[in-house]
Amino acid sequence: MRVEILGSGGAVTTPRPGCECRICAEAREKGIPYSRSGPSVFVHGPDVLIDTPEEIKDQLNRAHIGHIAAVFYSHWHPDHTMGRRLFETRNMDFRGWPRRSQCTDVYLPPKVAEDFQTRLGLKEHFEFMARHDTVQLHVWPDGEWLHFGGWDVRHIALAADYVYAFLFQRDETRVLIAMDELIGWEPPGWLRGVDLAVIPAGIFEFNPLTCERQFPADHPVLKVEATFLQTLDMVEALAPRRVVLNHIEEPDGVTYDDLCELEQRLRAERGWDVRFAYDGMVIDVGT
Ligand SMILES: [Zn+2]
Ligand SMILES: [Zn+2]
């Protein structure tokens, strides 16, 4: 299996249009790995795409990804769903008649399927695309394993009741991918020691190198998003063999170079095999 980080950013991607801060200016000048597009991961082997941010078409082209066996959605938030026109552009036979469009299977965990009914016009747009046979939605029941490319996959409900992580398993190898919204999550004991965990880094309430406060202590975002320090506790509890921290946003106030330094500190202080994600990062996993 090869896990590819198509987009390592979050709701606020880097560079942010119109922003001249040092992080955006550097990202504009140097591009990847300093720039970060919206959150998306591709799992080669099972050939599963997780989430479709606005930049998904460019991300798939950049990564030369052809076959997509299935698409999973972790939750309804716009930074994870707004690239949904992918299915029209990629699959529709515009010129042929009668049309011979391709159809992509999209799997929605139960609460995601429910939210798709009421949020952001998702229901209407997916019904529109389904009428053109470019996409087929499936509700993915709790506890059900799906099978792609020799891998078994299930979803795992997180503490926030609208978001899910995904577990890929084959023989003794287990890979956990959580796209966002870890607030309040206590990793269950049975997940301890997964071979690879890709999880969001959390909000950098404090600059991780200087320890300066970056978000006011009473900022409402700190009540709805896990912080970086809370995420470190989750990593301790999960004890993955390798961990990749993802979903890094422009307001987090850290550059690629800052994160390389932080990576070294965490490796030395905690003894973890930890990396911060960047666009295009690939992680090869055992079997
Ligand atoms: Zn997000
Ligand atoms: Zn900026």
Walk me through what this model shows.
With 287 residues, the protein is of the alpha/beta class. The protein has one domain (2-284): 4-Layer Sandwich (Metallo-beta-lactamase, Chain A). It contains 9 helices and 14 strands. It has helices at 22-30, 56-62, 78-81, 86-91, 110-116, 122-131, 221-224, 228-238, 256-270, and strands at 2-7, 40-44, 48-50, 70-72, 104-108, 135-139, 146-148, 151-157, 164-170, 173-178, 196-200, 242-246, 274-276, 282-284. A 7-stranded mixed beta sheet has the order 6-5-4-3-2-1-14. A 7-stranded mixed beta sheet has the order 7-8-9-10-11-12-13. Strand 12 (242-246), helix 9 (256-270) and strand 13 form a beta-alpha-beta unit. The relative contact order is 0.17. The mean pLDDT is 97. The structure holds zinc ion (2 copies).
Ions, cofactors and other ligands present here are:
zinc ion
CATH-assigned homologous superfamily = Ribonuclease Z/Hydroxyacylglutathione hydrolase-like
What is the helix content? 25-40%
**SSE run:** EHEEHEHHEHHEEEEEEHHEHEE
Rg estimate, integer Å:
19 Å
Terminal-residue CA separation: 6 Å
Helix/strand/pairing category: alpha/beta
Whole-number tally of structural domains: 1
Are there runs of 5+ residues with pLDDT below 50, and where?
none
State the CATH class. Alpha Beta
Strand content: 15-25%
Q: Report the count of strand segments.
A: 14
Question: From the 3D coordinates, which CATH architecture would you assign?
Answer: 4-Layer Sandwich
Overall body shape: globular
Number of helices: 9
Strands ordered across the widest β-sheet: 6-5-4-3-2-1-14
Mean pLDDT: 97
How would you sum up the major sheet? 7 strands, mixed
